[in-house]
Amino acid sequence: MFSRLRLENFKAWLDPEDITLRPLTMLLGTNSSGKSSLIQSLLLLKQTARSPDRTVHLNLGGDELNDLFNFGSFEDVLNHSAESPRLFSIEFDFDNRGASRIHKGSFGCSYGQTSSGSVAVQALTLKAEGRQFKAIRREKGAFSILVDDEQLPRAKGRNYAPERSIAFSADAIAVLDKEGQLLEDLSLAIRQELDRTIYLGPLRRKPERDYPWNKSKPGDVGSDGRGAVDALLASTLLRGDEQNYVVDGVSRWLRHMGVADKLEVRQQGRSNRYELIVHREGVACNLRDVGIGVSQVLPVLVVSYFAPKGSTILLEEPEIHLHPLAQSVLAELFVDVSMERGVQFIVETHSEHLFRRMQTLIAKENTSATDVAMYFVKRNGRSAKLCTLEIDDFGRVKNWPDGFFGDALGETREQARLMFERQKTLQQ
């Protein structure tokens, strides 16, 4: 999982600030405050790391079929208040038990614009096991390779340019000899961490009346949830130890939310088309014929069980179109799945109900303040600012920001004032 994130001059984030990430991290705040930029920084690295062109320095997107997000140009990513040097940077720490030999490490990279207008790495720093490796851009696209605190580079040249932001070139690994193996393992671990990152955005596809199935398991659910139904079909129709695992998990949480009793995959006659049937109070309906909230939360529930163990799931507005009780149950979903499957959730939300239930879960000791991080993001001029919510063991917030969830107490006072004034008028 990711344990730290740091952005500088990246979109809304002007000043560098370390953000601690926990198994469950919640980002709250006003619209256009910078919450989504935190998530987008990881998406930018993910789509760069999986780019088919290994020489690319940063993939800003534009391919609607293969990219997660279209960032536009360098100027669109660089904070408008950034001064010289005109660079933006992304850093993160990770701590995970994956297939790679490296379990903990750090990534840091700064980016600038070349004379031709393309984005180029200015400095790449990778750290693990007490060692540090740097690739620093020099003149005419040449890079210097430095190790630890050494002042003199091990090598210099254009053939030492980093690949896909996260990896040193084959020539750089070769020139480092035995240390090159550690560096190669570290790049692999970073790639795996990004590969395990799954994103589900706030705009999800509307349900169809029926679906074809190609008799295979999808790679992921997609940023708009387009693969969620394929994952449900595969869970039901493919035989194996995990048959019905995803469907059963989804049904359980739909029931807990009070929006359905069960979800069923039903074949249409002898065709290769299937429909999703929602059961509630003895009535069975096609997914298309029930409230939009069910179809919109479905990808959230599916990805929670379909994502491989140890994944990081990035969610934007998982509560969309859900009634208050169902929104609050999402907090229980995140806590239970995170503990059961070792999944990290980074959630951008506007839901007070979700937040309040998380407070209650901390108070009930279903989770702890050390496993949950909550942040309020606000704008200060052209820069985003982060307020770390200090939560005690009883779920109480010690430092409520102004305008956190509106002014509920003020609304109550105003209602009481108007009631007394009206009663006084009636008595006259």
UniProtKB/TrEMBL annotation:
A GO MF annotation of the entry reads:
ATP hydrolysis activity
For the ATPase AAA-type core domain, which residue ranges apply?
24-354
Q: Where is the DUF3696 domain?
A: 369-415
- Tell me which InterPro entries the record gives: ATPase_AAA_core (IPR003959), Bact_Antivir_Def_Nuclease (IPR051396), DUF3696 (IPR022532), P-loop_NTPase (IPR027417), P-loop_UCP034888 (IPR014592)
Q: Which domain of life is it from?
A: Bacteria
The protein's name: DUF3696 domain-containing protein
